[in-house]
Amino acid sequence: MSDVTHSNNLPHNNDSSSDVEAKHHVHTTYSPIPIYAAPTIANPGPLGLSSFALTTFVLSLHNAGAGVPANGPSNVVVGLAFFYGGLVQLLAGMWEFKTGNTFGATAFSSYGGFWLSFALIFIPGANVTGAYSTVGTAVLERSLGIYLMSWAIFTGIMLIASHRSSVGLMSMFFFLFITFTLLAAAKFNDSITTQIAGGAFGVITAIVAWYNALSGLLTKDSSYFLLPTGRLN
């Protein structure tokens, strides 16, 4: 019993053996609450890439004039941009925060915000484009050029930040940077030809994004084959 009282920093006294055992029992009592392992978090990357790819693909076909007039309305993209490219991609970004992936969280949350803001510009009730009715269409086009140029700058930052990720991811940001740059130039210069070129690069961007998404879905546990992305780290 002397070992027990010493290990528990209890003073030596004339306590009975039952008292010492009771004190020992108090110090060795464990919580009856069961401990469960933390739930696993699914990879949100393929979802974010898929929502980005599909929305980019549809808008880029309109910009390129593939099956529709290049200078025609593209309002059919608004609903897609708001819900899939915007809301779903924003949620994927929030889940990336949970996994600890700062790069993925920044990319998906930001481009989700891009699609939400893009949709808002062309929602009639928001009256964003209507506010330019007093100054003319040319001012609206230049404002959209500034908007797209700003996203080109952000995409350039993400391109630099992805230099140790994979060839697939770097390629996606590279083509997206070209896309934003061409579309911004088209707005500044009122050039349909430049817009069509931007749409073509946007289609390439979407295809690369879909490839990256499929690569993330085809894991060793779910597929008989894998898609290489050219890891750089």
UniProtKB/TrEMBL annotation:
- What Gene Ontology cellular component terms go with this record? plasma membrane
Positions with biased composition (Polar residues): 1-19
**Highest taxon of source:** Eukaryota
Question: InterPro entries recorded for this chain?
Answer: AceTr, Gpr1/Fun34/SatP-like
Check the record and name the PANTHER family matching this protein. ACCUMULATION OF DYADS PROTEIN 2-RELATED (PTHR31123)
Query: Protein name, please?
Result: Uncharacterized protein
Compartment annotation: Membrane
Q: Which residues cross the membrane?
A: 76-95, 144-161, 168-186, 192-214
A Pfam match is: Gpr1_Fun34_YaaH
Q: Name one GO molecular function term.
A: acetate transmembrane transporter activity
Q: How does it sit in the membrane?
A: Multi-pass membrane protein
Organism per entry: Mucor saturninus
Q: Which UniProt keywords apply?
A: Membrane, Transmembrane, Transmembrane helix
Q: Where is this region: Disordered?
A: 1-21
**What family classification does the UniProt entry report for this protein?**
Belongs to the acetate uptake transporter (AceTr) (TC 2.A.96) family.
Q: Does Transmembrane count among this protein's keywords? A: yes
